[in-house]
Amino acid sequence: MIAVTGDEPAAIRGMVRTYDAERGWGVIDAPEVPGGCWVHYSMIATDGFRELIADRRVTFSWESVANQDGYRFRALTVWP
């Protein structure tokens, strides 16, 4: 799990671009994260099976990274 330091931006709203449940990751789009924000299933804050659905709005916190599978942003927590 990623350590949260308190320097992360406040949670924002975004739209799930894609999510592959078999691979356990996807991408969320929002103006604050140009190019998309990579999300791993372990960051989804829900009980039971953790999955996102494309074209659904979510709230998420994020951090800037050098490279996460080709993305410059990574989700810290996602609330479906």
Put the structure in a nutshell:
The chain has strands at 12-20, 25-29, 37-40, 57-68, 71-79.
Give an overview in words.
With 80 residues, this protein is mainly beta. The chain has strands spanning 12-20, 25-29, 37-40, 57-68, 71-79. The protein has one domain: OB fold (Dihydrolipoamide Acetyltransferase, E2P), CATH 2.40.50.140. Helices cover 0% and strands 49% of the residues. It has a five-stranded mixed barrel with strand order 1-2-3-5-4. Strand 4 and strand 5 (71-79) form a beta hairpin. The radius of gyration is 11 Å and the shape is globular. The mean pLDDT is 91.
Name a few traits of the molecule.
80 residues, mainly beta, OB fold (Dihydrolipoamide Acetyltransferase, E2P), five-stranded mixed beta barrel, 5 strands, globular, NA-bd_OB-fold, CSP_DNA-bd, nucleic acid binding, Cold shock domain-containing protein
What's the helix and strand layout?
Layout: E1 12-20, E2 25-29, E3 37-40, E4 57-68, E5 71-79
Parallel strand pairs: 3-5
Antiparallel strand pairs: 1-2, 1-4, 2-3, 4-5
Pfam families: CSD
Protein name: Cold shock domain-containing protein
Domain CSD: 11-80
The percent of residues in helical segments reads: under 10%
SS field, number of helical segments: 0
**Distance between the ends:** 19 Å
The CATH architecture name reads Beta Barrel
**For the CA atoms, what is the radius of gyration?**
11 Å
Mean pLDDT: 91
Structural class assignment: mainly beta
Quaternary organisation: single chain
CATH superfamily: Nucleic acid-binding proteins
User: How are strands sequenced across the largest beta sheet?
Assistant: 1-2-3-5-4
What is the H/E order? EEEEE
Show unreliable segments: none
Strand content bin:
over 45%
Can you summarize the main beta sheet? 5 strands, mixed, barrel
Number of self-contained structural domains? 1
CATH class: Mainly Beta
CATH topology: OB fold (Dihydrolipoamide Acetyltransferase, E2P)
Tell me, briefly, the overall form. globular
Q: How many strand segments?
A: 5
